[in-house]
Amino acid sequence: xxxxxxxxxxxxxxxxxxxxxxxxxxxxxxxxxxxxxxxxxxxxxxxxxxxxxxxxxxxxxxxxxxxxxxxxxxxxxxxxxxxxxxxxxxxxxxxxxxxxxxxxxxxxxxxxxxxxxxxxxxxxxxxxxxxxxxxxxxxxxxxxxxxxxxxxxxxxxxxxxxxxxxxxxxxxxxxxxxxxxxxxxxxxxxxxxxxxxxxxxxxxxxxxxxxxxxxxxxxxxxxxxxxxxxxxxxxxxxxxxxxxxxxxxxxxxxxxxxxxxxxxxxxxxxxxxxxxxxxxxxxxxxxxxxxxxxxxxxxxxxxxxxxxxxxxxxxxxxxxxxxxxxxxxxxxxxxxxxxxxxxxxxxxxxxxxxxx
Length: 356
Ligand code: CP3
Known about the structure:
This protein is 49% helix and 12% strand. The chain contains 14 helices and 9 strands.
């Protein structure tokens, strides 16, 4: 168990978002939403239409910076998250990627060691550079009280997209490769770990205050595999980023990790734990106490779509149960396109003013 953070002499930052990472339980807690820049916003849809394609939007710094700032302008969230995608890393490595309208990402699948020859870590820098320029632009335009979150996908989750060739229900091909040929699969994970360190360090250098590692499919692995493919690579990324930037807080989001979440925090050393929708608020409280990590989450994105008294009840519960631990308000997964923008405004209001 990690001890309580030492608060003696900690400076008061102008950014409320950073206070929980110094051990402060803020009232109201800082708030941002996963996928806060996205299709539920008409201004996003307009910029996206101008860009022509999702990847073009990701790789055009002026437009990517514009959509990063849109939810900040509209709602005044405590943090902006860089507009990009976790699949920029396979794209940078040279795996062909496209986003098919209404279907999601499509990649040319990589299912064995021989196919790894198609990837080239030396090629990453040129692609990453465009994302770093977006970070620098956002940094320059962001209000000084707003934090900027950089991110990457965790190697396991990114590998699932690379192996399956897109999204999948159960990540079966990836799990099979990892079971049948752990040595070969480890090469892919290693490649992704190295590229992720480069990607995250570049984002911090360009101005990111905090990093989040998205492990959307962490929940599909039994425990030994979870240790090997989720915890171990994430621990390596955290250690390596910290060697360069010791003070940048890192939030892990091991979605679906359940009872393995406590060990995940201990082993990886993340200072923040993103909790998914299935985690009860009391369990988030226990995790905060047991690990010393900041907990973040975990309103069901569909409760936000439903709105009304249900939304108030869920927000009240989260704010009540988590009021005495370092906590960041968020959803338990990304906001969905059918979310009414006025429900988001209501949510921010409820968090900031409290639910009566
Ligand atoms: O606002 C933000 O949170 C920042 C930008 C961001 C996006 N994707 C933009 C995006 C972030 C942090 C992500 C992370 C991401 N991308 C994850 C991890 C988090 C999660 O949701 O589980 C994953 C698994 C991806 C991969 C990905 N990108 C998929 C499966 C899809 C298609 C599904 C969908 O929602 O359309 C995307 C596309 C994507 N990434 C969109 C956005 C705004 C929609 C694309 C569009 O505008 O056409």
